[in-house]
Design goal:
nine-stranded mixed sheet, alpha/beta, 210 residues, Barwin-like endoglucanases, 2 domains, homodimer, 15 strands, six-stranded mixed beta barrel
Chain lengths: 210, 210
């Protein structure tokens, strides 16, 4: 047998074992919107600014008090929360269940990649807009700070498998989970409400990279 | 090294390889109710019988035209379909998402095990009833005919892992999937709408025991 290959395999097994002992907190994303300043103004009026409902784990971001309705000819969701601050593109993140209700077929994407995604009508207290694109299903991902990435021996854009609710009736492994490393991030596994409920995961629950 | 152990491991690997090549069709269960004759009569009236909406994969069972509303102080779902024929217990099968809407904490169970499960109000066109128990989240499971069980080398009550949507952004492995073997069954992996949407699985899609 090839001794180097065996060493490589053993070192890989050790790495996976070490990694799988460190918990990653889960963060469940309900459907939400990100808005440009222009779209925010059209929906909430010229004198308004997004206001803090509560901070979220990712530094600098916050759930806003401001909510909108989103609507297609086939369905509607009321009271969809904005995540602030404003950004330079408007993006609507929904789950596959939501997509079925709305009759849309959005791509599964990383945040920010909204080319060739469906549009939708957004309704606010001061007005409504029709965006031509921006509806996506967020691809499962983990945010790492550079320090966390070192600890887990993870590189930016690597994909991993994530074990949820081990030892329970809802035990699930999510494959193809994208790792994103940035000094703007805090350690967190982001999944949508379908994925959270399929695996009985709540925000803050520990999951494991296996 | 122990030669018998090695043989055992290799034979297990071979079995898993063979098994993982045979597709199992998925069957997605939306929230639904099973009703006793007595409860059916209370809800739909004394001269009514459950009527065929469409046959389902499991022999002898059918989706009915008859629908009910289910309600708690916290939430309500309208138009929940009955699966016929009537059986000797009333059971309400919902997803974890549904449970959150209804403010219930039902156990994750095999069909028929309804002891110590929450009750609910059921509303039909001819009357309403309050059942004391019967709300469950159905545990993921696979139905096998005895012939299929032989083909897959599966025993009744064994648990397996099921790979869904391999090679896609929604690739998921459901662990702890219960195998149920009976000559009344046809081969089918049953999962609920949370699980189906988390893994982008539709009824009829092939999944694999891995």
């Amino acid at each position: 047998m090839d001794e180097n290959l065996i060493k490589e395999i053993i070192s890989d097994i050790k790495l996976r074992e070490e990694r799988s002992k460190i918990p990653v907190p889960a963060g469940v994303s309900n459907r939400h919107v990100h808005l440009t300043e222009k779209d925010f103004t059209a929906l909430f009026g010229p004198s308004c600014k997004p206001t803090l409902y509560r901070k979220i784990v990712q530094p600098g971001f916050f759930a806003c008090n401001e909510k909108v309705d989103i609507e297609t000819p086939k369905g509607k969701f009321k009271g969809v929360r904005m995540i602030g601050p404003c950004r330079d593109y408007t993006q609507i993140e929904i789950s596959l269940s939501d997509a079925r209700v709305l009759g849309l077929n959005p791509p599964i994407r990383d945040s920010g990649k909204i080319e060739n995604s469906p549009g939708i009508k957004i309704i606010g207290p001061a007005g409504e807009i029709e965006v031509k694109k921006g509806v996506i299903i967020s691809k499962r991902h983990i945010h790492f700070s550079p320090q966390d990435a070192l600890k887990f021996k993870i590189k930016d854009q690597q994909t991993v498998r994530v074990l949820c609710s081990a030892g329970t009736d809802k035990e699930t492994i999510y494959e193809s989970v994208l790792c994103r490393v940035s000094d703007k991030y805090a350690l967190e596994f982001h999944l949508d409400t379908d994925e959270a409920n399929a695996a009985a995961v709540k925000t803050g629950d520990p999951v494991f990279i296996v």
